């Protein structure tokens, strides 16, 4: 899923400083699963902002709603009858949400209430970790299911680098060196020689380096 | 045992401390309560194992929110006691009310 974290309340309060009536829109997709922008978090944000503004004696009228997915125009359309009744709209979806909303309703101002961080999953209750960088050419089968693109700070294809120390990455003593993990896994499986293979230069154009990407599925287009 | 506790304390019963939600605490503050506290079972003695530990984390989270928006986080508190400690219940009620009296009324207008 796409993982996000709520922006600091002070940042959100600054965004809506001049507003008197806002709508907060949640998303039932990834941000619900990572407990950032689901119904519960929408209500918590509304209450927090409500308290902050009441405290300043400048009460804010806040309505809340949630749609199935903000990255889908079919659902974005469901906001049409109310979206323009507000001074501004806070989106709690990943960065895709407020962009789809802005495109659909050019007359309204949309603010992102979350910082979108990575593609990952929950490794324990309340802890999410990055697993994929959307590089466009998946190669994890060569590394026993461990992604060196997203999980190595340098995206090395022939690791580890000299900074790997006692299973940790040089960037942070709490960050696992994925290359240490890859080597350990290959040794465990008796497949260390796999790593002797020199890989060809990678074409990074399939990743973000090639500019914004599009996925066209002719069989589905109308 | 006829123990007195301050009349401004309003008791809301829940089946387990774990039922207390972040939103319950926030809404109380938003609606103008001067303070809110959760009286849960002693740690390690929750009938549902971890209800009190979970809510302790929710209380800490609400404190963080209050801090972020410039409100005194001491207005929200968590206490642990056993259901057999009636005396302690009254004592906590006094302790919390005293603390809130020192903080003064909430800056939130109802
Ligand atoms: S190799 Fe690329 S697509 Fe595969 S998991 Fe890693 S970043 Fe994602
Ligand atoms: S220490 Fe490991 S994870 Fe960190 S940059 Fe080097 S190879 Fe990559």
TrEMBL record, chain A:
InterPro entries to which the protein is assigned, alphabetical: DUF5981 (IPR022026)
Chain ranges of the Methylene-tetrahydrofolate reductase C-terminal-like domain: 111-205
Listed name of the protein: Methylene-tetrahydrofolate reductase C terminal
Species whose genome carries this gene: Desulfocicer vacuolatum DSM 3385
Phylogenetic classification of the source organism: Bacteria, Pseudomonadati, Thermodesulfobacteriota, Desulfobacteria, Desulfobacterales
Automatic annotation (TrEMBL), chain B:
Transmembrane segments: none
Keywords for the protein's UniProt record, in alphabetical order: Iron, Iron-sulfur, Metal-binding, Oxidoreductase
UniProt cross-references to Pfam families, sorted A to Z: FlpD (PF02662)
F420-non-reducing hydrogenase iron-sulfur subunit D domain sequence ranges: 2-104
GO function terms (MF aspect): iron-sulfur cluster binding; metal ion binding; oxidoreductase activity
Keyword Metal-binding: yes
UniProt-recorded name of the protein: F420-non-reducing hydrogenase subunit D
Lineage, top ranks: Bacteria, Pseudomonadati, Thermodesulfobacteriota, Desulfobacteria, Desulfobacterales
